[in-house]
């Protein structure tokens, strides 16, 4: 016996003649956590879909052994019965069902005669949520009543209920707060101690380093290296992922900041469900030409609501004025905002950024389709030229512009949304969490593009939960807390501690 719980040997997977995986090997022991690292499009999620039979046996080449025996699963149900559980990047919860019903979905406890044993399911669901440090969640309420972070932990609870022998976590912390991430890492350590094997996929390499025993790096569908974590550090992981040393996380490109181009005056946003409550409370600020203005703050500070209101995309009641180049402009709808020279890449790419039924190319030209319309038809040639220029400009990895947008990795979907908005030729570009779910190499490319756009005179507003990112690329930083503007700082000698102090309402240094 090899001592391995699972072995994947020579795994190859093709899509339309393009090799997504090219002979990947992976082996994992009971109680071991492997960090699976690679850039967007490297093949991490594809490999895990092979393992969990989202891509069934027969649709790929190679061999999978579980306990030394061939595993030829043709459905996710079969792999789950074998103890292989995957938590996908996109949540698989049913919003209208209760928390307990979601946790037991497909594994319900029944009474004689087939009726569901709700008291037993509710009790077990409460036990699981206590393990996940979520004792305040009412398990009989619909899961839609809870935010993204809670839903992510409920998804993990669903996996724990299935008695996993091998747990695959694909970007599990993307929507979690720092406190929730600590709970998640503690859960993984506890599972390891109980002999459960884990595969941990995350672009947050500090998490990978904190919880993983072994690092496997893949690049362009090929196996690059498998190394014990005690012989690695974050810098070495990055170097293996991108194929080169990255001496700095943030590019340096000088750009000139000019006069004030935009002014937001007295912006207030009211809660959709509780209209008497303000999510943004009388916020005013100015934006200069060619400036990158970072907006920082804790979860719930009102950052997304503020920028959504500027772009006419806030779903609730809001008020205030937006001035551009010395005149008051109407940005009450996204279409009007685009017409005035605004563009926005939203935080929730899946629901607000892409149209899932369209191709990569169709998504890219969606905002400027009239540019290619010729009476009753679309000029396919001109549209194709524009699409290919944007794909090249953003180094977007796609086998063809005709591929469905959903076939791309999360980071490349993000680039497609950015390409779509850049085609509108904006004066003001709003980026809400522009690098969420994006690997370090692609992050560097996005930062570089932001600096290039600023050098061309485009003004950028960037909302980010990563303080290092805000400080790494911004010229000036606004800090929000509980819907109010708590501080405004020139980014000269500014530290994360100073930003956090302002965010929680302590005295901060006020900038110009």
TrEMBL record:
Q: Identify a single GO molecular function assigned to this protein.
A: ATP binding
Which Pfam families does this UniProt record tie to the protein?
A: ABC_tran (PF00005)
Q: Does the keyword Cell inner membrane apply?
A: yes
Q: Which domain of life does the UniProt lineage start with?
A: Bacteria
User: Can you give the residue ranges of the ABC transporter domain?
Assistant: 6-245, 262-507
Q: Which keywords belong to this entry?
A: ATP-binding, Cell inner membrane, Cell membrane, Membrane, Nucleotide-binding, Repeat, Sugar transport, Translocase, Transport
Record has Membrane as a keyword = yes
In Swiss-Prot or TrEMBL terms, this protein is called D-xylose ABC transporter ATP-binding protein
Organism annotation: Massilia terrae
